[in-house]
Design goal:
Blueprint: E1 3-7, H1 15-23, E2 29-34, H2 47-58, E3 61-66, H3 73-79, E4 85-88, H4 93-103, H5 105-114, E5 118-122, H6 124-127, E6 159-161, H7 170-180, E7 189-191, E8 196-201, E9 204-209
Parallel strand pairs: 1-5, 2-3, 2-4, 4-5, 6-7
Antiparallel strand pairs: 1-8, 8-9
Length: 214
């Protein structure tokens, strides 16, 4: 069974905790924290990143940092063979897909998920789980000058749009992003605010808002 948790911000209070309850685990889960998306980001203010890491730790995820940059299929087989889950961080989505293409990580992550192992993503890590990057990211070569195309991991049949309603992203979305995805020709979009996440089990998914949970 495929099992994914796609979040907008796993560091938002209640999100990681809710996922842990959904999993029902009472022991730490061994998980690889994919840091590739932050490699080209300005991390002078990394409070969101530290919040994500802290939330995972407090919720019982025993993670180690791992980048797919410069790796190969043989590295993934060796380095990630004993883990129970993969978490893909937020950051630069185009850099993430470029390095996924170069390292041949895409077939590995598809096999990993299809084998029943857990996938968790935040922001960029959630966007890339869909069939294709949203059009508002097309042409953004910052951190991805050698990007081949915009095809993504295709783990789910929709594209998550993170940080919906956030004041920080308001100008980006209302200033152009929404007009670029207003089309009938793209796979479905799921708009997800920072208090929500999407749980996917096989080909079914539902949206959880942690503010509505006791």
């Amino acid at each position: 069974m495929k099992h994914l948790f796609l979040t907008s911000s796993i560091g938002t209070p209640g999100v990681a905790e809710s996922i842990r309850v959904k999993l029902g685990h009472t022991r730490p889960l061994k998980i690889a924290f994919i840091t590739t998306p932050i490699e080209v980001e300005d991390m002078s203010d990394d409070s969101w990143y530290q919040d994500d890491r802290s939330a995972l730790t407090k919720s019982g995820f025993d993670f180690f940092d791992y980048t797919i940059t410069g790796k190969s299929s043989a590295n993934f087989t060796k380095d990630l063979s004993g883990i129970e889950a993969i978490y893909v961080s937020g950051g630069n989505t185009n850099h993430l897909i470029q390095e996924s293409q170069k390292s041949n990580f895409i077939p590995f992550i598809r096999d990993f998920v299809n084998s029943g192992k857990l996938y968790l993503g935040t922001s960029a890590g959630s966007i890339i789980a869909g069939p294709e990057l949203p059009p508002y990211l097309w042409g953004d070569e910052v951190g991805a000058p050698n990007l081949k195309d915009y095809a993504s991991y295709n783990l789910v049949n929709f594209t998550l749009i993170p940080h919906w309603g956030s004041d920080i992203f308001k100008d980006m979305y209302l200033g152009g992003r929404m007009s670029q995805i207003y089309t009938e020709s793209f796979p479905p979009f799921v708009l997800c605010n920072d208090h929500q996440y999407v749980e996917v089990q096989d080909n079914r998914y539902h949206i959880i808002d942690v503010r509505n949970q006791e």
